[in-house]
Amino acid sequence: MTTQKLVVIGNGMAPGRALERLLEKAPDTYEITIFNAEPRVNYDRIMLSPVLSGEKSYKDILIHDDAWYAEHGLTLKKGCKATSIDREKKQVTGADGSVVDYDKLLIATGSSPFIIPIPGKDLDGVLTYRDLDDVEAMLEAAKSGGSAVVIGGGLLGLEAAAGLKERGMDVTVLHLMPTLMERQLDTAAGYLLERAIEARGIKVRTGANTHEIIGEDRVEGVRLDDGTELPADIVVMAVGIRPNGDLARDAGLEVNRGIVVDDAMQTSDPDILAVGECVEHRGTAYGLVAPLYEMAAVVADRLQDGSATYTGSVTSTRLKVTGIDLFSAGDFAEGKDREEIVLRDAANGVYKRLVIQEDKLIGIVLYGDTKDGAWFFQLMREGASIEEMRETLIFGQNYAGGSPLDPTAAVAALPDDAEICGCNGVCKSKIVGAITEHGLTSLDEVRARTKASASCGSCTGLVEQLMAFTLGDGFVPDAVQPMCGCTDLSHDDVRRLIVAKELKSIPAAMQELEWRTSCGCAKCRPALNFYLVADWPGEYEDDYQSRYINERVHANIQKDGTYSVVPRMWGGMTSSQELRAIADVVDKFGIPSVKVTGGQRIDLLGVPKENLPAVWADLNAAGMVSGHAYAKGLRTVKTCVGTDWCRFGTQDSTGLGVKIEKMMWGSWTPHKVKMAVSGCPRNCAEATCKDIGVICVDSGYELHVGGAAGMHIKGTEVMCSVETEAEALEYCAAVVQLYREQGRYLERIYKWMDRVGLDAIREQVVEDEAKRTALFEKFLYSQRFAQKDPWAERVAGKDAHEFAPMNRIAMREAAE
Amino acid sequence: MNEMSIPDTQHWFTIGRLSDIPRRGARQVLLPRGPIAVFRTQTDEVYAIDDKCPHKGGPLSQGIVHDGAVTCPLHNWVIDLQTGDAMGADQGCVRTYEVRKDADGLVSVSLSGGSGKAE
Ligand SMILES: Cc1cc2nc3c(=O)[nH]c(=O)nc-3n(C[C@H](O)[C@H](O)[C@H](O)COP(=O)(O)OP(=O)(O)OC[C@H]3O[C@@H](n4cnc5c(N)ncnc54)[C@H](O)[C@@H]3O)c2cc1C
Ligand code: SF4
Ligand code: SF4
Ligand code: FES
Fold first, then answer.
1. Nearest bound ligand to CA A603?
2. How close is the Cα of A439 to the center of ligand 1, in Å?
3. Which residues on chain A are in Cβ contact (under 8 Å) with B23?
4. Å from CA of A672 to ligand 1 middle
5. Among residues A684, A671, A601, A598, which one has the least CA distance to residue A634?
6. pLDDT under 50 in chain A at which residues?
7. Residue A64: CA atoms inside 13 Å, Cβ hemisphere, count?
8. pLDDT tens, B49-100?
9. Which residue, among A550, A807, A812, would best test binding to B if mutated, counting the most B CBs under 10 Å from its CB?
10. What is the DSSP string of A127-152?
């Protein structure tokens, strides 16, 4: 086959998809040149709002990177606008003067924001919202704060307003109509939306007609028809779009509102196809990606001499403002021959309205609870009769079929051709097929294979449910919960990368993992610090400014800003000498409260920060060290008196507790670790609600993990039984080390166990002897660096600035 | 000389050196009417605010400092060091004080200026 020449004008989402499809099926049919007025590759335009609000970065929204074009041998002329088409010679001319021949031409020029022709529209600071340059202009303006006026209360205007507000601007939305998004929402939903927008601190003015934009050479404000003036540092116009048909019109192609195409996506010239927002098909120009992707599939097929046809699309809308759930589709105007079903739940801010005509669903508006959107949309597209389920229809799929509220029941009941991902037109059977055929187990794999939920992401929940339904218990939902607002990476990803990239400091981690903030936040810094401490013992230098105050000053902050001091009492044992020293310290420093804790320790409460080093010095002198009652680390090992005294005791529980504590004190862990050892199953030390518990029995030691007695109460699970004390010590240390390596920061042992499963812990600690030994050794190795009494260090002068005020100003003037 | 004519010299107090405050940390300066917290950011900006969280009075000088903000050690409110305003969904604000750094690294605060918003 001889290679033909294909020229594409415009490099947006529509032609991007068409080329992808074409290259998949017939990679060598064409030699392809793309003209792109934007100076960049193809990116996901619909994700500009998350970039504006800071939830994503440009890199996250790339669809095809430079490598992709290179790999497929495409010529991409970035920043080069096509200026004319010569249909006679079959040539396209670019702004740089280049002339490219074509056998087939694909026009995909998209559309342009509509600018209302009012005075001041050309002033500096009047922006539109269409491409990355616009987002960058908005971000630049938002840097210095100030106020923004957004003209247009539709999808784009509201997303822009929410983003600018997120970025710290004072935002007002002006909307001509009485309610927001009136093309997609009825008045009730529009009202709820307005309230939700206002609740974010964005001002909304409906029925507001902009008269002019005022300012000398930069925007200074906006004047409305009623004379009101609003100050503004920027004005964003988001009042609608206009298909870009000029180039086609100049070439003599038939253009109405958009470039006219038939069902084969062909323009009035048989060698020229058009796709995307620039086209008009059967009188309709579309402004959402789902229909454009359907067109793109037809274009790809036609370019391979196929016979696919495009017959128009039914569209649905979702607003991508985090925290606002809104879905609409179809026609929801009132009418004599129409009836409606409405459900309102004011307390929960839910409003649902279905419009029905001749027993068929023709319009859907959902606000506040949109999980049945896909199901309703499916019923609407199929034109299914809803007669049978009319009574319960509004409650959604779970009730309509009378089926139980199993979360996967809803997707299970969907027909195979139900569309799950609207953006990419992926139906249920395609996803299920891909999962089973390729053995996919993660959301990322499903996205890579099928594109489902890979664009706007609003169907992620459904896709996950489908995975759960298809894989059953084999499905572990992706925990893509980012660590905090400073990164998109999850705790697990961060840990993996710290090891893989050998990152050994907080600045290195932040730089290499592309933190969005310059120095993190109070959530990520302590977590990173722990991961680095745990992963690089002996190499990483603890960053004490990234520790919570308790771990920075080695005492527990109290509500009045004083501290409590808990000396270590190994296994809960103490002596007259220790008690006397404690009593002396209490008297000497006038410590107001002395209390016995739940972990068998003595707590001295109400010590001012300046006194801490002196208090510790006296306790150190009596042989006592820090009890780490403040640490995400080993806190206490509680014991009973066991064979020493108890008539039921089977082993030396006190002695074992002391040994465990001497081995483990000072270790840092993802969250606090509390342990206990009981001398017999009567369990007086309450070992079965501890993170790790040991129950002594005649034949040895029963090792328990995963208990908790805080906000959640959870009994432990038995991990295994061992015969000797030495084994008990080794196994306990191995579990703690595994937890140090796998636990997410602030995840207690029981939560970690719930996540990875007791079996997985058993496999590594109990069954795999080599692994256990390795864990044990790693633990002991890191203890070599961790076991330094932090109190003694500070008594010796470390971090002295922490414990003294910088200055005192005692002059009368300062009292004002 | 009367008081009105020299407000500037009268109310600036030298409190110490920049190097006395750890980067991404804070120190307290004690005043008869209660402590103020003096912060030094990663990039060496210095801010002074009352050492009293608008939520329940937590000592802000003990919090974690990140960019131009501090997270209160008691219940994690985040306070903007420049404006003294609580960030995010929380409402409240702390009094801020003007700070000067001179070429020798000496830091002074003005106890007359700053925002009186909290009072
Ligand atoms: C902020 C924002 C949010 C959106 N959110 C959603 C959403 O949630 N859901 C949804 O379905 N849709 C959404 N949309 C709409 C969606 O992005 C568009 O429907 C889609 O991107 C249109 O694709 P396209 O390929 O037709 O055109 P475009 O993506 O506009 O691409 C056209 C490209 O052609 C270039 N071009 C134009 N003329 C020439 C020329 N003469 N020579 C060379 N290049 C040229 C342009 O510079 C542009 O890069 C959103 C749009 C925006 C702006
Ligand atoms: S747990 Fe058993 S050995 Fe320990 S004190 Fe209670 S009864 Fe005695
Ligand atoms: S139970 Fe609550 S109030 Fe009591 S010490 Fe613990 S955190 Fe404080
Ligand atoms: S006192 Fe500061 S957050 Fe509660």
1. 3
2. 35
3. 545
4. 51
5. A671
6. 402-405, 814-816
7. 22
8. 999 999 999 999 999 999 899 999 988 889 999 999 998 777 889 999 999 9
9. A807
10. EE-SSHHHHHHHHHHHHT--EEEEE-
First-to-last CA distance in chain B? 29
DSSP-derived 3-state class of residue B65? strand
- The C-alpha atoms of residue A674 and residue A666 are separated, in whole angstroms, by 13
Q: Is A522 on the interface with B (CB under 8 A)?
A: yes
For A215-307, where are the E strands, in sequence order?
Answer: 221-224, 229-231, 234-237, 241-243, 259-261, 272-274, 279-281
Q: What are phi and psi of A243, to 5 degrees?
A: -60, 140
List the structure tokens of B70: 């501090």
Cβ contacts of A167 on chain B, cutoff 8 Å: none
For residues A698 and A773, give the distance between their C-alpha atoms in angstroms, rounded to a whole number: 26
Q: Is A481 helix (H, G, I), strand (E, B) or coil?
A: coil
Q: DSSP characters for A119-133?
A: TTTTSBTEEE-SSHH
The reported pLDDT for the residue numbered A811 is 58
Mark out chain B residues that contact chain A at CB-CB < 8 A: 10-11, 13, 15-16, 20-25, 27-33, 35, 38, 41-43, 56-59, 62-67, 71, 73-74, 76, 78, 111
In one letter, which amino acid is A782? S
**Does the pLDDT value for residue B116 go beyond 70?**
no
CA-B77 nearest atom, ligand 4: 3
Lookup result for tokens 């007025």 = A37
Asked whether the beta carbons of A69 and A156 are under 8 A apart, the reply is no
| CA distances (Å), origin A206, targets A71, A179, A403, A710, B58 | 50, 6, 43, 50, 43
Shortest distance, CA A809 to any CA of chain B (angstroms): 5
Chain-chain contact of B42 with A519 (C-beta, under 8 angstroms): yes
CA A710–ligand 3 middle distance (angstroms)? 10
Is A482 within 8 Å of A488 (Cβ atoms)?
Answer: yes
Out of B27, B58, B65, the one facing A801 most closely (by C-beta) is: B27
Q: Are A118 and A213 in contact (CB under 8 A)?
A: yes
The Cα A664–Cα A628 span in angstroms is 11
Virtual CA dihedral for A278, A282, A287, A293, nearest 10 degrees? -80
Q: Extract the tokens encoding A288.
A: 């959402």
Task: Tell me if B111 and A816 make a contact (CB, 8 A cut-off).
Answer: yes
Q: Which pLDDT does position A144 carry in this prediction?
A: 86
A545 touches chain B (CB under 8 A): yes
Closest among A611, A593, A610 to A602, alpha carbons compared:
A593
Contact between A66 and A74 under an 8 Å Cβ cutoff? The reply is: no
How many Å apart are CA A793 and CA A758, to the nearest integer?
39
Residue B103 distance to chain A (closest CA, Å): 19
| A282, amino acid identity | R
Q: What is the pLDDT of residue A517?
A: 78
Say yes or no for a CB contact (<8 Å) between A546 and B64: yes
CA A780 to ligand 3 center in whole angstroms = 33
Please give all residues whose beta carbon lies within 6 A of any atom in ligand 4, as ranges: B 53, 55-58, 72, 74-77
Backbone angles phi, psi at A667, to 5 degrees: -75, 140
pLDDT at B7: 42
Number of H helices, E strands in chain B: 1, 9
Tokens 């009485």 correspond to A178
Contacts of residue A594, defined as CB under 8 A and 6 or more positions apart, other chains included, come to A582, A586, A602, A603, A604, A605
- Pick from A8, A45, A247 the residue to mutate for probing ligand 1's pocket: most ligand atoms within 8 Å of its CB: A45
Look at strands A203-206 and A272-274 and give their pairing: unpaired
Amino acid letter, A10: G
- Closest-lying ligand 1 atom to the alpha carbon of residue A456: 8
Q: What is the interface pTM, i.e. ipTM, of the complex?
A: 0.79
Kindly state the tokens that stand for A377: 């949309």
| Cβ atoms A324, A196 nearer than 8 A | yes
- Output the pTM of the full model: 0.51
